[in-house]
Amino acid sequence: xxxxxAISRRTARPFGRIPGGGAAGGERQALDVGRVAGKLTxxxxxxxxxxxxxxxxxxxxxWFLFGIGLAVALGMTVPGLGRALNAGRxxxxxxxxxxxxxxxxxxxxxxxxxxxxxxRVHVLLQAFIFLAVPAYFCLTAGWLRGVMSGHLILGVxxxxxxxxxxxxCIVFTQMARGNVAATIFxxxxxxxxxxxxxxxxxxxxxxxxxWGLPMDEVARIFLNLALKxxxxxxxxxxxxxxxxxxxxxxxxxxxxxxxxxxxxxVFLAFCKAAGSDALRAGAGELAGxxxxxxxxxxxxxxxxxxxxxxxxxGRADLASVIFTAPQKTLAMGIPLLTTYFAxxxxxxxxxxxxxxxxxxxxxxxxxxxxxxxxVPESSSGDGGRQA
Length: 387
Prior knowledge:
- This protein has a single domain, classed as Na+/H+ antiporter like fold.
- Helices cover 77% and strands 0% of the residues.
- It contains 17 helices and no strands.
- The radius of gyration is 30 Å and the shape is globular.
- The N terminus and C terminus are likely disordered.
């Protein structure tokens, strides 16, 4: 019994000590616990802060693209909310009107007078935007009638007649050290012409494709466009005569407001189309049409570059042509599309799909193309910096 008690005392370990370490082992254990607690309570490292900041910058720079996806998803999941908000199409009509007032207010049409030089660039760009691109889609989209629903083809034709973007083509031209003045001139001119020319071209394309509308329907569409598009746009231009400095100072805010209204229009359109046969048919066969649109954008960029080389443009002018000619605007395109097909709201959701895909894709391809067409610093003045 005495021997057992002695052995037990000899082998017993004090609580909190590490074997073989005695009191020093307990101290080391306490230090380890302190280190773990410190790691749990310390603030983020510099690397973690930079990673979070990079993610936030990415989300901020691409919020509109994420917003499109969210608007489509919400429209498909809670269609009743959009139908209630847009009773009598009041919300969508008001959104279109505000967009065109803001477009007229912020569009610097006064710069057109200062940009009448370099006629070759202007003629090439306007002809490409309003003749070559519609002709290309008119000739090629017909080949896909066996694999693409009629409403998707309607959307392709609508996309074909949209004018070019304003902000993104200017940004990419600046980044490539191209002819920014020519880009601004032609982007502004195309959007002014698009208010009148795009609906007319769409009517001609639909007639050519066998979807011609009765003349009384065409007259009703153009009257609708005059009231909902031309009148607000003209009001914005008149306001600009008085408020030009205010409009220029707040152009970024106007652009953000227009983008938010476009997201509202997309949401309302998909709420209206949710569950319709037209949208189900379009969404069920997207792989082929989207691949066609992706390839078409790349091909149109190549054709624009080839046309510029053919007429002898310099490198700075070529950069302007590449980033302006094949791009299509959502800011003016979606309101035009929804107004044009206002009497057929069930087809608008499917008809929007080509434009909603083409917009982010053209930004991606432009970003890739920029690394190949950037004008060297030493020659950035060649090819015309002035329009």
